[in-house]
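job 3f2a | input accepted
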Amino acid sequence: MIISLPASLGIGEKLSKILGLEHANTDYRIFPDGESYIKFTVSVKGKDVILIQTTYPNQDKRLIELLLAIDAAVFYGANSVSAIVPYMAYARQDRVFIEGEAVSIRTILRSLRSVGLDRIYVVDIHKENSLKYFNGAAYNIDPTPFFAKVLRNVISEPMVIAPDLGAERKAELLATLLNTEFVVIKKHRDKRTGEVRHELPETLDVRNKDAVIVDDIISTGGTVAKIAKYLKNLNARKVLVVASHGLFVGDALEKLKSSGVDRVYVLKTVDINISSEFVSILDPTELIAGRIRETFSSK
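job 3f2a | predicted structure (299 res):
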């Protein structure tokens, strides 16, 4: 059965219809002191429970709610507990840059496992290797083929651009699916100040081409905006941006528009409201349903 937590994005109900599974919401409220209250509205005893909760915005609160729900499901006798996390908070804090730093995603994944989570599904976690910290069944859902299908209807003569080495595998796969080339732009970050410098290729030829910048997360939009402006100055016909998660912190959208980006495509993996024709927000439910079918049918 599927249980939607407070930040389920409406995915739970749609997923239950696609998969033909029972669905329930939770009773949820916030106490006057700010603490969260979670209560199941149906019995979970003997059920394979699938919880759905994204973790942005209000990352800490959403993670606490997920921990409460996992522990409650175990306490009330669920046969197994899985979680679908469309956006995994803290995933970018995945290694030590300076001695003494916490590896935050390790802490989060170990905590989820320790309260009884058997299986976790994440849509495009920042680095798939981070899932090694979850000592259970962990599945990363890659939306790149889905994005390729969408892009085929809106572009011609594409060129795929990775904004850094971390996006190279994603750019290579997208370029293969679109039957084109890809380019990786090198990024250098100062470990102490966090300042980022990009090494832009001098020989890149995007004249009269549709440049597609692909990444996993758009946060402040600064990196993508800088690259988009560079591509427009090289006479790219269009600059499109494809990212799994659109956080759009602060003035990110305005920054992207002013840089020359023509359109942005993201999945609905976070709980934000955007009323702009500039951004296409795509439903990830079918992607998630496909992964659920694969893993549960092989149990």
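job 3f2a | The chain has a mean pLDDT of 94.
job 3f2a | closed
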